[in-house]
């Protein structure tokens, strides 16, 4: 077929040179595919998504949760954000916005207002249950991530806004948060670093629109969940009128 196009091209509307280039392009052997192999078990971030192991603190720590978290905190916000930026990590909300850049919006001179981290666990899309499985089987991964992200942004508290229908998941998550408080990982003087960070679970009422970040903030404040006009953006005026970053469970 390609050869026929080339031979007939002198009498066609396309040029003979174009036909020859067309032939060379499509007759060339395709480049060899690079095979990276499967992901090794030791490189997996979520190690209990199928619920084969206990989700509680002791078992979670045996799988690597909370490993060297204190050292990461002590490196400071700029180092953490630099690592996130270098990694190329992007948001999973659809736009693929660079996480390092988004977190960096919070590094502003202190103006007297506290900063907050809000985690969007209002998973309302039909057939979507990634966040649900993480909170059900790997809750300490989320709690540890909240602490590290909170330190990076200078936030003093995180609000995990969970879909109202996820009753069991909310209970498991709350239990894991209590364990982290008891162990001294979160709360006052996290890991003995002098940093204070609290985590709260807020259950939604099943409204799909509250998956939008500003509608979620409105609901979190006890108002009707309707999106706000932008600007201002949450990084300037977010929850309770304070600088806020809204991120997904999978940052």
From TrEMBL:
<comment type="similarity">
    <text>Belongs to the complex I 51 kDa subunit family.</text>
</comment>
<feature type="domain" description="NADH-ubiquinone oxidoreductase 51kDa subunit FMN-binding">
    <location>
        <begin position="84"/>
        <end position="249"/>
    </location>
</feature>
<keyword id="KW-0479">Metal-binding</keyword>
<dbReference type="InterPro" id="IPR001949">
    <property type="entry name" value="NADH-UbQ_OxRdtase_51kDa_CS"/>
</dbReference>
<dbReference type="InterPro" id="IPR011538">
    <property type="entry name" value="Nuo51_FMN-bd"/>
</dbReference>
<keyword id="KW-0004">4Fe-4S</keyword>
<dbReference type="GO" id="GO:0051539">
    <property type="term" value="F:4 iron, 4 sulfur cluster binding"/>
</dbReference>
<dbReference type="GO" id="GO:0008137">
    <property type="term" value="F:NADH dehydrogenase (ubiquinone) activity"/>
</dbReference>
<dbReference type="Pfam" id="PF01512">
    <property type="entry name" value="Complex1_51K"/>
</dbReference>
<dbReference type="GO" id="GO:0046872">
    <property type="term" value="F:metal ion binding"/>
</dbReference>
<dbReference type="GO" id="GO:0010181">
    <property type="term" value="F:FMN binding"/>
</dbReference>
<dbReference type="InterPro" id="IPR050837">
    <property type="entry name" value="ComplexI_51kDa_subunit"/>
</dbReference>
<protein>
    <submittedName>
        <fullName>NADH-ubiquinone oxidoreductase 51kDa subunit FMN-binding domain-containing protein</fullName>
    </submittedName>
</protein>
<keyword id="KW-0408">Iron</keyword>
<dbReference type="GO" id="GO:0006120">
    <property type="term" value="P:mitochondrial electron transport, NADH to ubiquinone"/>
</dbReference>
<dbReference type="GO" id="GO:0005739">
    <property type="term" value="C:mitochondrion"/>
</dbReference>
<dbReference type="InterPro" id="IPR037225">
    <property type="entry name" value="Nuo51_FMN-bd_sf"/>
</dbReference>
<keyword id="KW-0411">Iron-sulfur</keyword>
């Amino acid at each position: 077929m390609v050869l026929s196009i080339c031979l007939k091209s002198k009498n066609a509307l396309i040029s003979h040179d174009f036909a020859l280039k067309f032939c060379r392009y499509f007759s060339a052997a395709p480049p060899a595919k690079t095979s990276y192999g499967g992901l090794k078990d030791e490189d997996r971030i979520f190690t209990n998504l199928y619920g084969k192991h206990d989700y509680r603190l002791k078992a979670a720590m045996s799988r690597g949760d909370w490993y060297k978290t204190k050292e990461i905190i002590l490196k400071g916000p700029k180092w953490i954000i630099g690592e996130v930026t270098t990694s190329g990590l992007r948001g999973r909300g659809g736009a693929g916005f660079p996480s390092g850049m988004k977190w960096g919006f919070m590094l502003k001179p202190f103006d007297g207002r506290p900063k907050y981290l809000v985690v969007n666990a209002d998973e309302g899309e039909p057939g979507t249950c990634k966040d649900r499985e993480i909170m059900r089987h790997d809750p300490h991964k989320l709690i540890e991530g909240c602490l590290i992200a909170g330190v990076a942004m200078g936030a003093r508290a995180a609000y995990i806004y969970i879909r109202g229908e996820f009753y069991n998941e909310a209970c498991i998550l709350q239990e894991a948060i209590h364990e982290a408080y008891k162990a001294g990982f979160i709360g006052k003087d996290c890991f003995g670093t002098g940093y204070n960070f609290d985590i709260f679970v807020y259950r939604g009422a099943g409204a799909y629109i509250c998956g939008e970040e500003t509608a979620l903030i409105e609901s979190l404040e006890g108002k009707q969940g309707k999106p706000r006009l932008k600007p201002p953006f949450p990084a300037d005026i977010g929850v309770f009128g304070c600088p806020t970053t809204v991120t997904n469970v999978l940052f």
